[in-house]
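hey
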């Protein structure tokens, strides 16, 4: 049988483009099939219009499970990766969540439905400005943004219950671990010696840090001026 990959069945020879609602429903089905079972996460994905977070030229592919270019050499992550990371982060409605790597703003927007406030840092100003405009258009008001090197975290904002790094690091930043509240959890993709990236989950306990390796990932690299003092944090 000749199946169409996208779009509704042709009527009178004309292919009718699927509505964003229909394609979003299809994405939800795919996420369920791929093993995402957390209903709160699925509901947050359903409420977040991914087509608003991709460049116009890719809008008809917004609900495919694929990473897409967003400019500045960066990408919006695959929805299945966003859903998996969100489920593993296990945010709670009273929690403060720090995201490193705003990119398009999609992951941060999904998190807004699941926690008290999202703090998100992006090093590329043009990407951050576009993400901020999207947050405003969608009236997502529980997000605070910052342009800078996320590797330094956001010490002035206080401790975070959850930290999510959405770019691949060479090692776990102790600066970020220090910004986790007790009982707090951090997810970070780490490039290991065998060249493979793996998602690592760290939990801060009263006696130290527990580390669990979750699964292989494929993120763009985390880029940072790790050793220089952050001008925004240094008192004048
Ligand atoms: N979370 C994003 C989304 O939902 O679209 C996708 C993140 S993209 C895979 C990784 C992002 O991390 C890029 O936008 C990149 O510019 C940013 N990034 C890389 N190194 C960074 C750093 N040191 N501080 C802040 N952002 C960084």
């Amino acid at each position: 049988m000749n199946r169409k990959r996208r779009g509704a069945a042709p009527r009178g020879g004309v292919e009718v483009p699927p509505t964003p609602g229909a394609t979003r429903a299809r994405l939800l089905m795919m996420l369920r099939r791929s093993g995402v079972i957390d209903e709160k996460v699925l509901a947050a994905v359903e409420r977040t219009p991914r087509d608003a977070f991709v460049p116009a030229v890719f809008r008809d592919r917004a609900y495919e499970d694929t990473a897409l270019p967003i400019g500045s050499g960066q990408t919006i992550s695959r929805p299945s990766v966003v859903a998996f990371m969100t489920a593993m982060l296990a945010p709670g409605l009273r929690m403060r969540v720090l995201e490193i790597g705003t990119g398009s703003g999609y992951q941060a927007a999904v998190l807004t439905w699941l926690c008290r406030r999202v703090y998100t840092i992006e090093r590329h100003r043009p990407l951050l400005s576009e993400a901020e405009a999207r947050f405003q258009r969608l009236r997502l008001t529980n997000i605070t943004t910052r342009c800078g090197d996320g590797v330094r975290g956001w010490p002035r904002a206080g401790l975070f219950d959850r930290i999510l790094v959405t770019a691949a690091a060479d090692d776990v930043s102790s600066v970020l671990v220090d910004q986790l509240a007790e009982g707090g959890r951090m997810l970070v993709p780490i490039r290991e010696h065998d060249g493979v990236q793996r998602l690592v989950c760290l939990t801060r306990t009263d006696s130290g840090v527990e580390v669990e390796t979750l699964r292989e990932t494929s993120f763009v690299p985390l880029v940072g001026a790790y050793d220089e003092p952050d001008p925004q944090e240094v008192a004048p």
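The beta strands are 68-71, 74-76, 96-100, 117-122, 143-147, 160-165, 180-191, 197-205, 208-216. Residues 176 and 200 are 14 Å apart (CA to CA).
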